[in-house]
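fwd from M.: "can u put these together and see what the complex looks like"

so here's what she sent:
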Amino acid sequence: MEGPVHPRPAGRGVVIESLLLAAVALVVLNFHPFGAAHLRRHFSQDLVYAWLGDAHWLYPRSSSAALGARQQPRAVVVLVDDTALALRGARWPVPIVFHAEMLAELEVLRPRAVMLDFLLIDRAAPEDACALLKTADRLRGDGIALYLAVARREDLSSLEAPHCLNDAGQPLYPDRLLIPVSVRRQYDDADFVSRRYPFGDINDNQAPSAGLLSAAVRMYCDATAARNRCAAELAGGRLPDAGFELAWSPAADPFNVRWSRTRCKQPPAQTRAILGSGVLPRDSACPPIATLFASALLSPAEDSGFGPRNEQLFDLLENSFVFVGGDFRGSGDLITTPMHTQLPGVYYHAAAFENLVAFDGKPKIREDYRSFKVGIYWYDLLVLWALAGIFLLRERWIATVTLHGDEFFTPSASARAWLAKLIAHTPAVLSLTGLVMVALMLATYPLLQVMGIVVAVVSWLLLEMLVLSRLELKVRLRAVAIYSAALGLSLAVVAFAVWFGYRWLRLPPGDWVGYLSFAIVGFFVAHGAIVDFGRHVGSLRAASHSGGRG
Amino acid sequence: MKSFAIVATILVLAPYGLSADQPSTAGRDVCAATHDRIVGSRTKDRPLPLMSGDEAHGFRPACSVPWNILSPHDEPIPIVACFRGNLLQIENDKACGGGTGRLWISVRWVVTRAASEDSGKVVVCQHLDTASYAGTRGLTPPCVTPSH
């Protein structure tokens, strides 16, 4: 029961010591001399979306709602594959006239906008380019915006077709009918996963309206009442490689169940996912964006289930934002997302569009791409300060109820004495061999690790109940109650902090796991060093004061 | 005993195996079913996209026209050729202006019917005061006015 009694801070001391503790915690959370902090943030972000990505409060997308009851505009992916090309006697690379045919078919369904995720950079035959321009002209007449992926704005010139006239005899020009959009992708350096979506290809000296906006950004802003303001708010004044973090849902779009060869099972309930599905995010077999195969659109033999009057096709595509992309073997147009090992690249833009819609044009942006970066870190410091304050107060309260500075979460002196007696009576060879065997088994079988923790905790509790006096037991139980209350308060602070940061500061959930781990265990680790440091500063001050007086 | 266990295992797992890789769609191929007439559109009364061209030179959009341009009297349109079960060629070569050749239409947007399906059938129709007949749209069998 005898042990060193740590000085417990009081009043102003708690405030200062907790600030010091929070500052150290902030550094530890952001300490990455070799870029390691990014990995932890990615892990935290992926974990949160894998567990909770289908929750409306986290990712309020509309496609999880039933068809027909949607409020938000919907993104739909139309995938062109070899089967679709063969249906019209075409082959890879996709001929321009095939795109024109697809657009003519899509026109019937009256989408709100269509984006072609194909780089048409080879100069087209004039008659083929003219077929595309005429179709684009018809779409424009129907109020359907047509976006084309380009590497540079000048790429549109490859579609110029001299003497191409519409039905009214007016000349047709690609730069008047097609809206060029950037399809540049961003990957995280550490694991090549596409978590971030660029705002566009915009130079430092360009206004957002002059640069080439990314497909999803341009399509979203065009759909708003104030396009230029939207573009300026999203892309203005940012670094050239700035982007927003993509939220992903583990749930498949209900429409995709019709064609998926794997079971598009719904993700488990959140509590079950956290407790029962392991810690790491799982690969999802079905994409979260509604997907129509071009072959199904072109031929009822491929999918005859759209209703006698194509009702389901109209339900899916009417007024939606259509992203037409390719899914060809060997084309290399694939992305890796936190939840999908490989997805056709067009999903990147469709998911980004859904993010913009879901978050009402205010997507989540990392600190690194903020103009007032230090403000975000001030916020982090405040949160950690509150957590550190709770930690220190908890230490203080527990110190008032425990006996002789005994730490309640370590075995009591009575329990330690009982264990020492047991070990002393056991032959050394036997106890050592047993210890090595247990370590070997724990390392070999992960399931035993969980069981081992449970057995150790239960054994410890039983032992304490056997060897402790009633008074000691009462004291320890009181300490446990204080600890639990403080932990609950810490978790409440964390919950408020992540909600405020996510909802109002638009921070991605990259630091959530860090906050939680610090609230639960991190301060224990940092605290010893801080107490020593504080004590050292205190002794130096005392020495200087006494020296000054002398 | 061992063989019983194997048979039991197969029986237990059979439903899962059967449901795993079934094709998701099993549509009918219009050409294979010798459907030879187009009897209506499935476009919510929107214009039908028409294609020009052929297999050798490729297909390209020609224009979009309402159903009543292709069939002013709402009569079935004969199919003269078929391409890979999804494009149907019609006799019409003027709906999009001249020089297109015979036009093609995607089977997705039309209702087709085989001639044999109508043999021996009659349509009950009604004589209107406007001196015309009202009956089921797009059917050619003889129109039989009720005798009452």
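replying to her w this: The longest strand of chain B covers residues 58-65.
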